[in-house]
Design a protein that fits this description.
Blueprint: H1 3-24, E1 35-36, H2 43-47, E2 50-51, H3 66-79, H4 104-128, H5 137-144, H6 226-236, H7 247-255, H8 262-265, E3 284-289, H9 290-303, E4 316-318, E5 323-326, E6 329-332, H10 335-341, E7 348-350, E8 362-365, E9 368-371, H11 389-392, H12 396-400, H13 457-483, H14 508-535, H15 539-550, H16 558-572, H17 576-587, H18 607-614, H19 629-634, E10 644-647, E11 658-661, H20 670-688, E12 690-692, H21 701-704, E13 706-707, E14 717-718, H22 720-730, H23 736-742, H24 761-778, E15 780-782, E16 812-814, H25 821-827, H26 839-854, H27 865-878, H28 900-908, H29 913-916
The protein binds protoporphyrin IX containing FE.
């Protein structure tokens, strides 16, 4: 890159941050509704300013005025406005090099405009999409309907119950406030993250919703109000139920990976001896590796679980392979159909655990009747916090599987594996589960970790990496402590907040818990600025995610300090709705991490200081934090997993030595694979291989035929892809089109909308084939314009949306309203550049990913040496004991810190040094040439030309 380019990029970084902040600091107008001023150019005169919508049916939908599109993306952006998909994806510089204009200011407007659109979406998501199931919704709704309330709240529903062993410690029946030992650490079951809402986010609290309660469980046609029920009835006309369309038929027709050589794949079991002649076709994403697939499974095991110790309730249900539509009529499958489809009529599976299936209470606010919760609720059996609970535990049973080193209780126990002699092997491997350990019998032979379910070589790798990293931190602390035993560690005990805790005073238990805090923060940072920026590989998201973490502005800049000050004043506001809207937007300036950390000289002494300084940085936007069911839906990412791992060895990285089926590494079978082949070879193999694209007909074959010994069913086998459909229906997730309307996205009007008209002819032919199958599986009907189908949105002309979706009355229309949400987001082929996920999944992340940071005091005001130690704070900020920077520019950004996961890998598997040297992001396939600006090309980097993965097939 030339010096001119470099200067231009530095200028762009500075200017876009400044302009972005100015745009966000735009004025209020009448009714104090928030206004965002659009970025410069002709759009301003033509369009004026856009208000944050005051009602949900008038939402932004990611669509801008013609002049705005013209200004930010030129003619292509204008031409694509009529499509249902968001407009920002067509702005200047939001794609690869070809999306850039010769005029710097256009690129600046394109990227800045995309960020502004995304902030509009986030502000409206916060305003319209928070629905708590635990009893707080009625008050939240009433506040919205005119009464004023404080932005920061404590809820009676978030008090510890009398049955909790810590009930008295937090204040018993009086005012509850967490103090002392309960606030120093991430507690096992997640209580006391929020000092004034001790129960929030803890194990066994209820999943929330992001969609109106009345829109959930569309097949039950329950009656919050007669009107709402009529809309649901009109929308689906009795066509859907738990088993219709048949989940296994959906799976076999729309999820199965086609194979050019079925014998070479052998349903994902490959060939004897792991011969490298085995081959399973799968659709690959060129810019994301298999490590990234297992990473996200590793994350979900931290965030949520509907299951308890790897099982559901004791009651069983059948899971389909019973019927299909024939000429639009649901018809029983014949034996020949079953054989052709390859499904199993006698499969059965445990039903979900239910928390509450009783009829929800209703209340009236603003002349409208509402449900106080969803018709059925479910518990999150994990802590909702990003607290490393998959490693450290989330209840007493899971904690028993977490083994500590008896020689130094601050460390995790790692054992030496005979014969393992690579450089990093001296750091050891996780011990195995013992007979005495609490466990699901299916887990026998596995490594011992808190969250042990659905274990394969991928999870084994990541758990071993972070157990080693935990010990690396402890060892570094001990090294420094031995050099300076009397130095202040930074840690404080709230019981005696003014007493300095010297390095020598830190107990093994304290150090263990500090290391947990550090590992959890490190993981959150990796996910936010490394995994996500590769999942969403373009410039606006690079800036947006770094903005979420670090702030769009330098933390030390005066503008950033001013914004931080505004943010803190907003939280004190007693006008909750406005305050919440401003807060999320303005906090993008200084960044969420460490937000409102108190100034030097602060004190932890006294309850007021605890509330103000320890807890003061969080914001729950008026609704207690937990993940919504809809979040689980968009993380059903089984298509990411390949059937076979292209196994490589570090001594000859450019060759594939074997094809190892993932299913052969399932559960306890992962152990010999890990011990005999070692971390470095697995890192290399998972790092170089492309993961599966999130697309239709791309689910692993082995997951459609997964053997589970514990099941009391004739086949003891399940189709996990079919279960993805079935579980969402059990949990009342609205179907795809209403799901999009609820989240403020534009609806689709037929399956044809899934065809990407800007794609290659071959790609469009494939999409057309899939649309035909969708039509066969979900069917069509004669539409009726008198039937209104939703309250969530309106047509552009202000009329109500009806069953014809804009088509003539009585015409034959697709049953697009019935499409299962997972099928819909997998079918989205029109996506922003470099998006491994679809825009429908993305909108769910925009809301929940930032809330997960805003709500957690350990990522905001309690990210301080008093909790993390000084070394802990530095370790998270510097991605390790010292800061390191890349010498090459990354997509035009110079002097970038070496990315946090790359640093972790270099410490825990140091033999990867030369392989990782040219890698900028550990989740980009390691041998790929990244080009200069967000290219998605599949080309080798220098030195990897002979890697067969790049051979033209
Ligand atoms: C590679 C091996 C994997 C196996 C064997 C596996 C297996 C399973 C099974 C059996 C279930 C069903 C549980 C039930 O509802 O009864 C499930 C659920 C799920 N899986 Fe996977 N999975 C794998 C990979 C992944 C990956 C890569 C992701 C990516 C995020 C993922 C995300 C999920 C999610 C979100 C659920 C729903 C969990 C819940 O309801 O709490 N899985 N998986």
């Amino acid at each position: 890159m030339s010096t001119d380019d470099g200067r231009a990029n530095v200028k762009m970084a500075w200017q876009s941050a400044a302009l972005f902040a100015v745009a966000l600091l735009a004025s209020c107008n009448r009714n104090s509704d928030l206004v965002l001023s659009p970025l410069s150019c002709a759009e301003k005169a033509a369009d004026g300013v856009r208000l944050i919508a005051s009602t949900r049916d008038a939402r932004f939908q990611g669509k801008v005025m013609e002049s705005t599109a013209e200004c930010r993306g030129g003619e292509p952006a204008v031409a694509r406005r009529s499509q249902p998909w968001v407009d920002w994806a067509n702005y200047f510089a939001t794609g690869d090099g070809s999306s850039k204009s010769w005029f710097f200011t256009r690129n600046f407007r394109g990227v800045g405009g995309a960020l502004v659109d995304l902030e509009y979406q986030r502000a409206e998501l916060i305003k319209f999409n928070l629905f708590d199931n635990s009893g707080t919704f009625e008050q939240y709704r009433r506040d919205r309907d005119g009464k004023e309330g404080a932005a920061q709240k404590s809820w009676p529903q978030m008090r510890l119950p009398e049955s909790d062993p810590n009930f008295s410690a937090v204040g018993g029946a009086g005012e509850q406030l967490c103090r002392g030992e309960l606030i120093r650490i991430r507690t096992l079951d997640g209580i006391c993250n929020d000092l004034t809402n001790p129960l929030m986010g803890s194990t066994h609290t209820l999943f929330a919703r992001n969609v109106q309660f009345e829109a959930t469980f569309p097949d039950l046609e329950v009656d919050a109000t007669a009107d709402e029920r009529d809309r649901t009835t009109n929308r689906h006309a009795g066509r859907i139920s738990l088993l219709i369309p048949d989940p296994q038929v959906v799976s076999r027709r729309l999820f199965t990976r086609a194979q050019s050589d079925p014998a070479a794949c052998n349903d994902g079991y490959g060939k004897p001896g792991f011969s490298k002649d085995a081959h399973c076709d799968y659709k690959q994403a060129s810019f994301f590796n298999v490590l990234a697939a297992f990473w996200i499974q590793f994350m979900t095991h931290d965030w949520f679980s509907h299951l308890e110790e790897g099982h559901n309730s004791a009651e069983y249900m059948s899971v389909g392979c019973a019927s299909q539509k024939v000429n639009g009529v649901e018809t029983a499958l014949t034996a020949a159909d079953v054989a052709r489809l390859g499904c199993r009529p006698s499969d059965a599976m445990e039903k979900s655990y239910l928390a509450d299936a009783g009829r929800p209470a209703t209340f009236v606010s603003g002349n409208k009747s509402y449900y106080a919760r969803a018709p059925r609720t479910f518990r999150n059996n994990n802590t909702a916090w990003w607290d490393g609970s998959q490693i450290y535990g989330f209840d007493a049973l899971s904690r028993e599987r977490v083994k500590r080193d008896p020689h130094d209780l601050a460390r995790l126990l790692m054992v030496q594996v005979p014969g393992a002699s690579k450089q990093g092997d001296s750091q050891g491997y996780l011990p195995l589960l013992q007979d005495a350990d609490p466990k699901n019998p299916d887990w026998t032979g596995q490594e011992s970790v808190a969250f042990a379910d659905n274990w394969t070589i991928g999870l084994s790798f990541l758990h071993n990496v972070f157990a080693r990293e935990h010990n690396q931190f402890v060892d570094e602390f001990r090294r420094r402590a031995s050099k300076a035993p009397d130095a202040d560690s930074g840690l404080r005990n709230p019981e005696a907040p003014d007493r300095v805790i010297r390095n020598r005073d830190v107990t093994p238990d304290e150090l263990f818990e500090v290391a947990r805090l550090v590992i959890a923060a490190e993981i959150a940072k990796i996910h936010t600025i490394e995994w996500t920026t590769q999942l969403l590989y373009n410039e606006p998201l690079y800036r947006g995610m770094n903005g979420n973490w670090n702030g769009l502005l330098e933390k030390t800049s005066s503008l950033s300090r001013e914004l931080a000050d505004v943010v803190s004043r907003l939280k004190a506001s007693n006008r909750s709705l406005e305050a919440n809207q401003y807060y999320s937007i303005l906090a993008a300036g200084p960044g969420i991490f460490g937000l409102e950390s108190a100034a030097p000289g602060w004190s932890m002494a006294g309850d007021d200081n605890l509330r103000a300084f320890v807890n003061g940085g969080t914001n729950h936007f008026g609704s207690p934090f937990n993940f919504p069911e809809e979040f689980v839906t968009v993380y059903r990412l089984h298509a990411l997993v390949p059937d076979l791992i292209d196994y490589r060895v570090l001594d000859a990285p450019n060759a594939i030595a074997a094809e190892i089926p993932v299913v052969e590494t399932f559960r306890g079978r992962a152990t010999p694979f890990m011990h005999e082949r070692g971390m470095a070879n697995w890192a290399l193999s998972l790092g170089r291989q492309r993961l599966g694209a999130l697309a239709l007909q791309n689910n692993p074959r082995f997951l459609q035929n997964l053997k589970m010994d514990r099941l009391h069913s004739p086949t003891q086998t399940i189709d996990v892809a079919a279960l993805d459909i079935l579980r969402d229906r059990e949990r009342g997730v609205p179907r795809f089109n209403e799901f999009r309307r609820q989240y403020g996205l534009h609806q689709l009007t037929s399956f044809d909308d899934f065809i990407n008209v800007n794609d290659t002819a071959a790609a469009q032919a494939e999409q057309t084939k899939l649309v035909k199958i969708m039509r066969e599986v979900y069917g069509q009907h004669h539409c009726d314009r008198t039937k209104k189908i939703t309250y969530a949105q309106r047509n552009n002309d202000g009329t109500e949306i009806d069953d014809c979706l804009g088509k003539p009355d009585g015409s034959v229309v697709d049953n697009i309203e019935d499409l299962d949400t997972v099928v819909g987001w997998l079918a989205e082929s029109t996506r922003p550049h470099g998006f491994a996920i679809s825009e429908t999944q993305f909108v769910v992340f925009i809301l929940n990913a930032s809330r997960r940071l805003y709500s957690d005091r350990f990522f905001t005001s309690s990210f301080r040496p008093e909790f993390y130690t000084q070394l802990g704070v530095d370790w998270v900020n510097n991605n390790g004991p010292v800061a390191m920077h890349e010498s090459i520019a990354i997509n035009g950004h110079r002097n970038e810190p070496v990315s946090p996961f790359k640093r972790v890998l270099l410490r825990t598997v140091p033999e990867l040094q030369s392989e990782l040297a040219p890698v900028a992001n550990a989740f980009d396939p390691w041998a790929r040439n990244r080009g200069s600006y967000y290219t998605l090309d599949w080309k080798p980097r220098p030195g990897a030309e002979s890697d067969p993965a790049f051979a033209v097939k």
